[in-house]
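To: structure subgroup
Subject: Chain for Friday's discussion

All,

I'm putting the inputs and outputs inline so they're searchable in the archive.
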Amino acid sequence: LRPDRHPYADDLDLFGRGSLFQRISVAHTRYGQRTLADWLLQRAPRDELAERQDAVRNLAPQLEFRQALEAEGLAIVERRGKQPGVIDIGPGPDPEPLLRWAESPTRLRDRKLLIAAAWLLPPCTVAGLVAAFGFGQPMWWWGFPLVVQIALLASVGKITQEAFVAVSYTEGAFLRYGAMLALVEKLETTSAWVTSRQQRLLSEGD
């Protein structure tokens, strides 16, 4: 988290052993730690600071909520070690690859012929197999559509591989963050800062 050539990070010991960040941070997820670090490093508008302070005053007495939120965050980054009874604390799952893939432009949806071929060629191959082995028809009846499918798969292999890696790499990241998000959504608060983030969660979930 230590930035290079920051005007005051080293002077104020913002990061490192015994630093301000280490003393005040109860964030366990990579997002929470990154957000706190950004708040310490970057100036915020006066109105934003006032809203954050109001949020702190509103959340300070809600001990049960804060403890539950921290516990869920800790559950995300905990994983069992190789030895029985050993728990390791890591950075937690990173859903960024899936987010980048989900927000990227669609690359196959507009290829109508490819989509039609993907639907039509498999049953044609099966029908060709039945015709060849059941009724003595030429082998190319099923061999030709099979070769075409292999060629099409090779042509989009890079795109499908990117999608597979993006989805599989998350390791259920969104499901593991779900409990924390549910706590935030259900929180009753008068803080405008917290309420705006609740509304963002609810609107993006629709």
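Points worth raising on Friday:
The mean pLDDT is 82.
The longest helix spans residues 112-135.

D.
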